[in-house]
């Protein structure tokens, strides 16, 4: 007979399990809404014909999307999942972007309010500004259905863009809502208010580059996307955070590097607050810290655009950059950390960029982490991401997060590649530390300078983080 602790765990999982593998599931049980996170490189979703590769460029090739069906009858629209902002809006102006971004923009779908019998105009407008890009929206309410679910949310408030700048998709902001950042119930609030979920919490597993698909579970977890227990991290209250905005700020203990065939080395002054932002392609860290990490990848100077160009062979090296939080270490394989830009001659860049204003962990970190956002208790639960199937599970109470364990094996390989170092790599071996953390504070009302715009366009960064002004 299994030990009592194992039986209790199995009982808990059976009690809260809300489905089988997503591919087999027709509808969701009460309390659990799980949706695929679609990578924009997934040709099965964003090509006109399946199997035909859509040649994307600029920013749209590195973002993560969910499909919503809006209105009556439903109209399918893809929106970018963004933990760094707070509101849902749709219908960017595709004529204001070019190249692959414009193609993607058209194929992501549009919502036509004139074709919905359940839409109501609220007669109010707003300008939303992000780290890059902006949208002028008019608020409406309408019914929203969720991909793979029979659940429909009624009279959900969201924005319909009348014009936009430097945006190629709508955004589903899943940060804090009513009473903190908005004067109405945002999408996450509505899921709880309409009893689609029992708790105001969700889990995010972006999936690896090669997987091209992840999963978001509103009101629950997917125990086949991690191993062992989850580590609890308190969200730093807005009044104590660097930018004084209610975001998912947490304290990071350190960053270190584990090169192949060499001991782990911790970077000096890497104990800083960071926030988790799925709307940012890159991770932004203080300049001296970024420079030190780049040096360990064999790059002493950034290119003319301010980015650290790397040898693409590093994506096959079995090393990791390690982020530590409250005793938990999330190991990010080189392959997941490095930003690969396709082309006739592919280009590779360090997935960390210097910033004196923002300290955030974007997609180059989040692909390797399994993260639970508990908005009820202002906590983050985190561990190393894995993938051993699909077992989405509804939470009866947020306190269940303290006892749930993942089903995957404990060992996760960094990459399926070689372990030999690249010539010139690790040129700073032997140093005990690397630089200083710099200024991590984000002053109220700040935004990227226009010089950042050119840099972001050139490398494909989407910084979908609401700027408060």
What does this structure look like?
The protein is of the alpha+beta class. The protein folds into two domains: about 15-205, Cathepsin D, subunit A, domain 1; about 220-460, Acid Proteases (Cathepsin D, subunit A, domain 1). It is built from eight helices and 29 strands. The protein has helices at about 5-15, 45, 100-105, 185-195, 285-295, 335, 365, 450-460; strands spanning about 35-40, 65-70, 75-80, 90, 120-130, 135-145, 150-165, 170-175, 200-205, 215-220, 220, 225-230, 230-235, 250, 255-260, 265, 270-275, 285, 310, 320-325, 330-335, 340, 345-350, 350-355, 360, 370-375, 380-385, 390-395, 405. It has a six-stranded mixed barrel. Strands 16-15-20-21 form a four-stranded antiparallel β-sheet. InterPro entries: Aspartic_peptidase_A1 (IPR001461), PEPTIDASE_A1 (IPR033121), Peptidase_aspartic_dom_sf (IPR021109), SAP-like (IPR033876).
Describe what is shown at a glance:
The protein is an alpha+beta fold. Helices cover 13% and strands 32% of the residues.
CATH architectural group of the largest domain: Beta Barrel
Which structural class should the secondary elements be placed in? alpha+beta
Mean pLDDT: 81
- CATH class of the largest domain, named Mainly Beta
List segments where confidence is low: pLDDT < 50 over at least 5 consecutive residues.
4-27, 45-61, 412-464
Q: Main β-sheet: number of strands, strand sense, barrel status?
A: 6 strands, mixed, barrel
* Domains (count): 2
What's the helical proportion of residues?
A: 10-25%
Query: Could you give the count of β-strands?
Result: 29
CATH topology of the largest domain: Cathepsin D, subunit A, domain 1
CATH homology superfamily name of the largest domain: Acid Proteases
Q: Using only CA atoms, what is the Rg?
A: 21 Å
Strand content range: 25-35%
Distance between the termini: 61 Å
Q: Give the strand order of the largest sheet, numbering strands 1, 2, ... along the chain.
A: 2-3-8-4-7-6
Shape: globular
Total number of helical segments?
8
